[in-house]
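Students often ask what a 'structure token' actually looks like in practice. Rather than answer in the abstract, let us consider Engulfment and cell motility 3, a protein of 761 residues. Its sequence is given first.
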Amino acid sequence: SLGRECGTPRSGPPRPQGPQARCALGRRCTVSEKCRCPGWTMTPPRNVVKIAIQMRDAIPQLIQLDQAKPLAAVLKEVCDAWSLTHSERYALQFADGHRRYITENNRAEIKNGSILCLSTAPDLEAEQLFGGLQSDSREGRREALRHLVPLASDMTFAREVISRNGLQRLGTIIEDGDDLGEVLALSLRAFLELMEHGVVSWETLSIPFVRKVVCYVNMNLMDASVPPLALGLLESVTLSSPALGQLVKSEVPLDRLLVHLQVMNQQLQTKAMALLTALLQGASPVERKHMLDYLWQRNLRQFIYKNIIHSAAPMGDEMAHHLYVLQALTLGLLEPRMRTPLDPYSQEQREQLQVLRQAAFEVEGESSGTGLSADRRRSLCAREFRKLGFSNSNPAQDLERVPPGLLALDNMLYFSRNAPSAYSRFVLENSSREDKHECPFARGSIQLTVLLCELLHVGEPCSETAQDFSPMFFGQDQSFHELFCVGIQLLNKTWKEMRATQEDFDKVMQVVREQLARTLALKPTSLELFRTKVNALTYGEVLRLRQTERLHQEGTLAPPILELREKLKPELMGLIRQQRLLRLCEGTLFRKISSRRRQDKLWFCCLSPNHKLLQYGDMEEGASPPTLESLPEQLPVADMRALLTGKDCPHVREKGSGKQNKDLYELAFSISYDRGEEEAYLNFIAPSKREFYLWTDGLSALLGSPMSSEQTRLDLEQLLTMETKLRLLELENVPIPEQPPPVPPPPTNFNFCYDCSIAEP
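Now compare that with the structural description of the same chain:
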């Protein structure tokens, strides 16, 4: 750049390298060194991107676009390169995707390697296409619409079309309806694309226009692409304009939407479902209930379950969202009952409570024919309501809580009427338990109803993007109440598994919540499948899943961590073996068990320090541990043959299976050894389960067998966890990859050369 030949030195002292110039080898070279340094390059400015611009029948240009330069100046340079005059008549577009026009607002989206194309300016393009829309020739209008539709999604172009009354012209073509084929379909598509920009409000549409679009929904003989577009337009009208939405609701019969849903066309089904959910959202609660009741009577639920959810074709995201909305609106019908507390002065609600009580208990006095005094009757009812699990003798006080309000009473009545045997078994089974161990039916039902309302988002507004619907909801009538019936029996089952008391009620409900949430997340397709899966998710399984998830969060189950744990196991098992043998060397005091009864005699056994002898002998209770020299009996470890535990021990077999001996099975172990030519046994009854584990592990280690006790497993897990955390202290907050990084391939040759004559600056 200074006009010198390579290697020509500059006069005067060398000037330092500027901040933008850096050698590819990382050096900062002086100006005279640039000519000799093979790695010197000039870093391009950050606001310059390298792009390609193409034009039909022309060689593409590769340019460096300066984002700081005005777009008009860039266009002028591009046009000059192709010898094009009047650069204001041209514009740049993205060559891929929706071919959006480049403006000063979106030019930052141009990145290195982007491909642009030079096209007609949006105002000239809009003027030309608008002229085509006004053509008397049907073919001319069709050609203009074909060019308009792909450009209508661009905001810049849409504003130009709308400013030239393009929407009114499209509306006229749609209202005329001269061509029910491609022209009408293209007109509806272009109209929808232009309206989606929000430049013009949907409320400005005329009533005749909306009624004409309704006609296209209700007609049969037309192009197959027209009804989905008309349904999509009416959906937008219904969601955006309450007044026009009422017009659509009155003009489009629900039966017509059901007809469209039954056509095996996914696009048509999706748009029909979209309009249906839009009409339901715009209706009042009373109207919505009438509409849903009518749709269920027409077997819409069964059709959705069989032909949409279980269709051979995969379900689209839009249909999944509309099914979510339909589920949410249907469950929303429960909200008034959920928000209404029980009225203690309502005769109907008092009678419902009495029906609930009578379904569980025989009515004393009435069943035997003898009369009861009013005080006796009130006392009897209060006691039975207590047995039902109400916290108060007056159940109205329990049901004043909102939520769940009357919805909890509805659930309890549904359970008692539709599963009477399960209801009676639940109540009577818990009535026979101790007071602190009984599972309260009413209290559990109230809390379970609140839990289901939270899990199913009853009463919450619909999300605009959610797709989380439950297929089971469409496979079952009264799905909420049926889900409650499964949940209340699950509560009783989990209560027994946890051996819970009244103080554990909240803890049990947390487990039940987790069981229901995990099973609902699996999206079972039927209630029976849900029941099977949720009953298989026992309390023990929940604890196991919690432990697994905790380990995943800590990164303990990552493949590299698992590999590290496997490498640490032999060393830690050796540590556990050493601890077990040391415990045997310390010795333990055992009680002697005769063949007839338990005696008070004690004996002491320990392992010699050299691990070659078991030494044992009798001792008195309360005496200090004996020394090795004072123990008269010895058993060489070399003579030991096998270790026996539980019912295999001879001293347990001899006692039979008496009830008083069953507690000894879990603590008994024996050593078989050679005594001359005979086999003899040294029998033990451990004083505790822990001592049993320690001694059986130690004896297994002496015999060369694996230590397989539960205590060994727990000790090994604890040691592995601690050792792994210590090893990973330096990697805290560093993500550990699932797989090791790939080893790069070797170089093509090993003829490496380094020029030592080039000194580092």
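One point worth highlighting: Residues 559-586 form the longest helix (28 residues). Ask yourself how you might have guessed this from the sequence alone, and why that guess would often be unreliable.
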